[in-house]
Design a protein that fits this description.
Blueprint: H1 2-21, H2 29-37, H3 44-55, H4 57-60, H5 76-80, E1 82-83, E2 86-90, H6 101-107, H7 126-137, H8 169-179, H9 190-202, H10 208-216
Helix pairs in contact: 2-7, 3-7
């Protein structure tokens, strides 16, 4: 009877766990707050790969000598396939957080289940957890190394408030600053701008004559000259 009761209890726990995982994914409050801040499509090379490389590839990367559980998170084929040591489960199920073991493990507070494992002395911040969760939810799209991705021309994001373009690149920079919760620094003085430009172009500081000419030039295209 005790064996039957034990088996019945175990089956009940498994069914409840499965039922929970079929509902909306549960995240800690700090992670959920970061998750809600993420707008737009995440880019694997820009947002996701740096996190995986820093916190996950040590045990689940390309180094076969250090791989754990036969899992590679640097390759979609392995990440999306059945877990060798956990039949019926998958590390990542694109578009489904509840069926992605990676999601459950990075959100866990159980040291026996948590990833990265505590012994690695690696931890994910709330924002990093949110990015990984959002990426999986968005379809977990992998990309080849950025050098092999064909560039796509995009229109500069619109600038808001008092800011105006001096160069179309400003739109992308300002959009990234906003995403990071940062504000642009005040524009540098003309002397400093010329010094930076001169070092970039020639490797030398500007001459006195060049500095005098630039500071005295108040035309709209003084910098371009």
């Amino acid at each position: 009877m005790k064996l039957i009761a034990y088996l019945f209890g175990s089956i009940t726990i498994l069914l409840l766990t499965a039922a929970i995982r079929d509902k909306d994914p549960i995240m800690p409050a700090d992670v959920l707050a970061e998750y809600k801040k993420i707008n737009g499509k995440l880019d694997y090379n820009m947002h996701v790969k740096p996190i995986l490389s820093d916190k996950c590839f040590a045990c689940h990367g390309p180094d076969k000598a250090k791989q754990k559980a036969g899992l590679r998170l640097d390759q979609s084929k392995s990440a999306f396939g059945p877990l060798p040591e956990t039949p019926g489960k998958f590390a990542i199920t694109p578009g489904n957080l509840n069926k992605s073991e990676v999601f459950h493990r990075i959100m866990s507070e159980d040291p026996e289940y948590l990833m990265p494992v505590p012994s690695s002395h690696l931890t994910l911040t709330a924002k990093e957890k949110a990015i990984l969760a959002k990426w999986i939810d968005q379809g977990a799209e992998y990309q080849p190394h950025w050098a092999f991705v064909k560039p796509i021309k995009k229109d500069p994001p619109p600038l808001e408030g008092i800011y105006a373009y001096t160069n179309p690149i400003d739109g992308f920079i300002r959009a990234t600053l906003k995403e990071q919760g940062l504000k642009p620094a005040p524009q540098a003085s003309k002397e400093l701008l010329l010094r930076r430009l001169s070092f970039d172009l020639t490797g030398l500081p500007p001459t006195t004559a060049e500095l005098d000419a630039f500071t005295a030039d108040n035309s709209a295209n003084a910098y371009e000259k």
